[in-house]
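Request: Have a read of the protein record below and say how the chain folds.
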Amino acid sequence: MPLSAAFYERLPGITLLHEDTARKSRFYWVGAPGVSMLGIRENYPTPLVQRQHFAFRVELEDLRSAHEELSRLGISTENFHGEDAAQLMVFPFMPAVSIYFDDPDGHSIEYLAMLDDEPRPDLPIMSWQEWDQLHNRTES
């Protein structure tokens, strides 16, 4: 099985959907069944595998706890700038906040939570605290 199989199977919100031993593949639901799916496989049919980036939408409350849960699992998380994910960044053009981490095969995983505010594509990426101040809120 792919090195990442054990990694994904211990992440919150990931459940095994199907294993295809002939193709050395596993498929997972991400979040509720039928919403998002991730498929992984061994280096098959070729050992030349590019680093990939996968973004999965999660609920805002789940994102708030993901940093701590992943830390308990020994998984280091970062924000968009490569800093500790305790300081989340907002992508104003969506708007959304996210955390990043790598799987054992080196692929970049992003948990992304949409915010209820109106998109602001005119603004640069900023901290969640700055975003809340812009919207006259005090805490994120």
